[in-house]
Amino acid sequence: MNFYAVYRLSFYLMLFLATLVLSIDSTDANRIAMLYPVVMAVVCGIAHLTVDKYPKLGLSNTAANVLGPCAFLLFYVEYRYDESLLLLGLGHVLFYLQLIKILRPKTTRDEWVLLLTGLVQVIIGGVISQSDVVGMALLSWALCSLWVLALFTLRREAERVRPTPGTTVFPAIDDEAPYPGLINPAFILASLRVAATTFALGGVIFLVMPRRATLGMATKGGAMGTHLTGFDDEIKLGQLGEILENDSVVMTVEMSDEEGKSIVPRPDLLWRGVGMARYDRGRWRKQQIRPSKFPFDFPRRVRESRLIRQQIKLEPTDNPVLFGIRPILWAESPSKPFAPEFNNIDGSIYRSDTRPVSIDYLVISSVNPDQGQPTELFPETEILNDLRGIDPKLKALLRPIAEKVVEGIDPGDNVARGRRLESWLRDSGQFHYTLQLDVIDRDLDPVADFLINRKEGHCEYFASALALLLRSIDIPARLVNGFKGGDWNDLASVLNVRQKHAHAWCEVLKSVTPDKPNAPPFWVTLDPTPGTARDESVAKIGGISTGMRQIIDFVRYVWVFYIVGFNYERQQRFLYEPIRLLIQEAKHGFQMIEQGFRAIRDWMFHFPNLSSFFSPRGFLVSFVSLSILYAVGRLVWSLTRKVRRRWRNPHADRSAMAVGVLFYRRLVGLLEGCGLERPDWETPREFARRAALFLAGNGSGYESVADVPPLVVEAYYRIRFGHEELETESFAMLESRLDALETRLQPTP
Amino acid sequence: MTTEHRTRPGDSRRSTTRLTRWAVSSLWPNQRLRWTREGISYLVVWFGLLATGLYQQINLILLVAGLAAGPVVASIFVSAAMLRRLKITRRVPAYVFAGESLWIDYVLQNDRRWTAALALIVQDDVTPVDRSIAGAGHTSPRVFFPRVPGRDRSQIRWEGVGPSRGRYIFKSLDLGTRAPFGLLERRVTLFEADSLLVYPRIGHLTRRWHLYEREASETRRGRRHERSAQQHEYHGLRDYRPGDSPRWIHWRTSARLGQPMVKEFEQQHEQDIAVLIDPWLPRTKVDPKQREAVEKAIEFAATLCYETCRHAGRRILLGWTGAVPGVRQGPGSVKILHEFLSQLATMRPSAEGGLAPLLDALPPSTLRESLIVVISTRPINLYEEAEKSSRLSETSARGVIGRVTLLDVSRGDLTDLIQFGESGLTRVGQADSPADLVETPLRAARPSSSIGEPPIATRPGRVSPGSRDEMEPRP
Description:
The complex is a heterodimer. Among the domains of chain A are: about 5-210, no CATH class; about 565-605; about 610-650; about 655-745, no CATH class. Chain A is about 50% helix and about 15% strand. Chain A is built from 23 helices and 20 strands. The longest helix of chain A has about 40 residues, at about 570-605. Chain A starts with a helix and ends with a helix. Chain B folds into two domains: about 1-35 and about 85-200 and about 420-475, Immunoglobulin-like, CATH 2.60.40.10; about 270-420, Rossmann fold (3-Layer(aba) Sandwich).
């Protein structure tokens, strides 16, 4: 396969993916956003077939100079069209400039520019949206970029390393195919290995990057957040059915107990959202909001109670409603603008800032459902009237039905009466669960129509019917919208709550007067919806097999919690705290070892008096200590000698050999100093003879040292070739003779 | 030499030795990393990315920054892996003529099983031992190995022009790679010492020189005719000159032309020659022209030796002045030529000594009958030198001086006597190239890299068979 063809195609694929990252989640803001990647692909294809093969077909400088300003003009038009799309517009400018560059003959410098503009596009795409689709596109781009960068380096190296003028290299590099046979299974395998290493290292670096504790925990999802129907201030009966057929994830929940151990939630867990008090002709209105802080002494409560910790990652929505398991004891978010607030009128939690961003928040709930919602206010008279409020006509219709069902139950026992009605709606078999809603009598109230005529509907009808039946017999009740259950993921140990899990149920006030002064009201949850039928209906939505859903949910979980949602708290929890714990453990272990050694030392060296030293123990201690000291000394001495030998002469190991060579080298050095050099063709012996003649012929005292060269060379020969070892006296004699030679050769002042 | 260990003599397997070796190599690493230009640009962009991500606390940008850091960190490890289990061998000729073609073979062997070695650069360094020689400088051969598959080897030949005369050493060579991402360059320095002897530049002796030589030979006094002219080859006829032996008269031609003609022999080939060089330079204030004169003198001497040794049988002597005058002699042969050229290659100018001590060191036979060519870089008075000599009597001095051809380079005596062709690369393959006459043996590859290695194919880009030392004589 041709190297350049692979390189070009990879390069264009990378540019396409960069444009995809920019465009894939901006279709809401720009209707033609998905056209950009298509245009990029087409232009890349044209460039590959034309300008890359025949550079003459590329855009001329003039054409490029004309088109450049046009790119900025288009950006200006886009900006004027919608000023909020400044960032996206900048990404598009880069796109236009890329197109111009692609259609021109490209140097390696141009390719660098294209690569960097692609990177900037990706950054813009990441700033605009952090949804999982952008993430997938981004990871694809990153993988492709690695591959391109590697090929780019190979290409650049082949071009960079050219022979300098005046030199040639054989065989010369083939310009057309500088790396023949490069693309083979071994190369692809090696590339994958490098990519895996790079990604792993990049992932580790990403995880250890510092996160701030207070900012940035809320992350943007798409250009617009999802609107959760059924959680507005006013809802029309039946609206909830719209989201019951939707498979999108609303929130992802990690659940743990008070010790932080992961727990598997019950399938019928109710995620309480918003409470509805007023009912008027098929419309429910939300209870008023009175914000209050969470007044709990949270750390103390942790020690006292059994708790459920819910770490919730809420997908971007434009609703202020937050969800949690009742009774809620505490809720917090690392992101201050989106911190949960408590509504003490209905015991729900919400956020003030309704910007469509993804929010991380923690809810701590009590395991005990009979505890009631702490700090929720007992309904005032006006509110109580709302909670008992029902249209007289409707009341007249429903009261006989309710009374008939609750006949024989103590009129003061609201809960018992409520449970009887709940059971009647859910278990009597008269009512059925369905998402298909047909109005039979338009003149009737929808709830009355459900109870009297239709007798089938979804949870909202069941819950509304129960609430109104209770109100018809003067029992305060309210409708609650939230979610029931979710898809538990075994791989990630998280619960994915989807829109299809939306649910409505009813809460009945146990007593209209507080049991104790300042005690919170006790609301009992009643769920009249037939559970099995609902579960079957929920299971039908989505259409993906359980195994596949587990995998998809797991990938999504990783993305949501550990990439996009990897915040300070998670970093501390999953990275730094285990490391700290590990260090502490190691420290503890070392301390134990140290203590052990100390104990042994104390035992060994503790001699209260001199006579105790002269004992078997004293002998043992002395013997062991001296042995260790001796061994250490020998080792140090041996290593020192070796290092010194190597330091002095790395090319000789044997001591005798080293000495012989040193003598010879010294002689050579001395003679070199006076101009006598040994050429290659002269043996040391010949050289020594010549040197002796030279010294003898020089007169004036040189004769006395003329014998030194042959003497040293003979000794050198004996060591070097004869493998003999000289005696110490011989070494001393050679040393002294060389000293004499050196003294003689020194210039006289 | 492998990229993992430096060559150490001795093969001790003792654990302490290994430990020491490991400790020394750890303390003195032979690898280094440096940022490339692209890497620096990449780093700047990465810092921008990181700053944006940290400031905005946008995890997706932090993710991009993290992934972008991956290639930098991976480059550190992957480049090290890329250089692992590679062997690089340098093959250099034992000697080369200055200005002629110099080639060096680099063989890269990849001992890895699968992974190919990619985009590797070998950077060598040829350093002159004696920097005082005019024109001696560094040469940095550089070759690029695009791809060497696993369990394979590749050879690339670098060709350049031989530098100025002298001894050159190859201390170490760098093997570098920018793979896989071009952000960092890792270089491993391999201490593979080697040396190269660059002989002086060889020129062509001109016709004028041959005339000089002939005249000096013919007009010399005290020449001996013990060698029979019949044994010599004659190459032409010329007019009779006074002093010519009647035996040389070619009677038939003389009769035909009506004037005496004598046979002209290749006498200069027969007569022994002594080339005495006096590479004098003042101790201080050396003029570049004087250095140039020394080089010219040496080149002329080398050319003379070269021309003389082309024909076997004629004795030649090379003598040089200096603090310690030196003399080498022998019958003309390739071997003696190598000796002379080696001596001339490493010859250093000297401010000491003179011709007289050198004349004293000459063998008596040379003084008696050889043609003596004195090449000096300063004006020389032969009579004064003869007087200084302790061995020459007045009579013998006259005889010697009569056979001396004195060439003073500083005076420009060599201008018309020698010519130089174009530089080496253009002369490769020409029949009269000195490299063709004195076949250049290959310096042996290191035994460590050739022992047990499989035979190597001799296709282009592959390694040729190992050492040719056994096949060709070395000086």
